[in-house]
Amino acid sequence: MERYDYTKNGANADDLLSDVERLDVKQRLTLHKMMEQMKKDVESEELKERMEWWDNSILPILKEFAELTSSVLDVERDQPNIIQVTLRNHNGIEFTYDCRCLYMVIIMAVMVIVDVEDGAPVLVLTYDTSKFVN
Q1: Per-residue pLDDT at 100 exceeds 80
Q2: Which of 15, 32, 38, 128 has the highest count of CB atoms within 10 angstroms of its CB?
Q3: Nearest to 116 by CA among 127, 124, 108
C-alpha cells in the first residue's frame, strides 16, 4: 500500500507565518530576497523539466510521423516555454490508424493551424510548455 499524507502541510504553513512575524525588518528583507531567488530557480528548473518532457514524449512522435509520411519537420524554440512545430508534405498530410499517437500530440498543442505554403499543405502546432502539468 502507498500512502501520501499531506495533513501536516497546513500546520507547517501556519508555523512559517508565525516565524516570519517574529523577524525584524532586515531579516524580512533578506528572506524576501531569498524567496525571490528561490522562485526564479524553481521556474528555471520547471522550464527545463517541461522541455525535457516534450523532447522525450512529443518530439519522438512527431519525428516518427514525419518519417512515415516522408514529411519535413521544423521545430522552432524562439521563446521560453513556446515550441512551434511545422510539418510540410507536398503530397498532403493524412492521419491514419498507424499514426494514432499523433492525435494526442495535436490535442496537447495550444494552437493548431492547417495552411498551404508554396502549394504544399502544412500543419503548424504551437506548444506552450507552461500549460503542462509539472
Answers
A1: no
A2: 128
A3: 124
